[in-house]
Design goal:
This protein has a single domain, classed as Thiamin diphosphate (ThDP)-binding fold, Pyr/PP domains (Rossmann fold, 3-Layer(aba) Sandwich). The protein is about 50% helix and about 10% strand. The chain has 14 helices and eight strands. The strands form two sheets. The protein has a six-stranded parallel beta sheet, with helices on both faces. Strands 5-6 form a two-stranded antiparallel ribbon. The radius of gyration is 20 Å and the shape is globular. It starts with a helix and ends with a helix.
Length: about 350
Amino acid sequence: MTETAHQVATAAGTMPSVADLERMYWVMVTTTLADSRAQQEAKAGKLQAAFYPVRGMEAVCAALGAVLEPRDRLVSTYRNLGDVVAKGVPLKSIVAELYGRVDGVSKGKGGPMHLQDDEVGMTATTGVVGSGLPIAAGLGIAAQLDGDGKVVAVTFGDGATSIGAYHEGMNMAALWQLPVLFICQNNRWAEHTPLADYTAAPEFAQRAASYGMTARKVDGFDPIASWRALSEAVQAIRSGGGPVFLEFETYRLTGHTGTADYSYVPKDELARAMTRDPAPNFRTWLIDQGLVAAERLDAIEQEAESAVAEAFAFGAARPQPDVDQLHEDVFADKKLVLDLL
């Protein structure tokens, strides 16, 4: 947390409610704990699927969950744990999907890369880098045609800015003034490649502005600065202002996958980033500002610990999908298609 962000937010009268602050802290702690547990399970060979840690991005995820409504749609990436927790997908269903079990949110057939829950507006997560942007543009067209005031948010890493689909989605959204919120979770690493080695133009917000949309850079380690920027963006989009691009500067605090080597990361960079670990810093700030008592935060942490333990016990104990379900949910039901026509 930065004092400057707090002063600006307070002066503008834009601070989350106490309930939202507590919910944000719960999301951050739950994500951190579940992320750590998933990495442990993957290293032990119990989680037999690639898991992509989200450590370092918890503040952005929590702030996004606080500003989006259940009706708003979210498209995420394979590095999605914080996003799906923040959007309200039940934790047991998330973890069961990580294990590939029948009670997973995608019936155990999507795994960590493919989680979807229409009940809370979690429309899709995708394993193809950059592919979420054109999906979000399509959902934006639907929302615009429906005129229902929905906002479509799409999250992606900095590496996705080098993908062709990224540019196509951005251009379409700007041209047609679609209600899409583009959220670049800039953790400074495209898998194993540092930012400076894959782009000569690292100012993503500047590049986004060139498409003809509002764009700004935000401190992604600061949950209040993140909440404020997201709140303003969602309000502008819902009011018909067209798409908004937000670049959240953060740092990936773990390897690319849950089992990946991380020795290539400069130790001094990682050490500096770790001093801004989102959840512990947010706890300190909440107490120092007198917004939430330490005892209440202790209780939230205990709730998160219990929820994570129960979710992993549940997920690991559930059965895998039967072979006879292999072709279910793959092809559209002919009768359903005819009914829609």
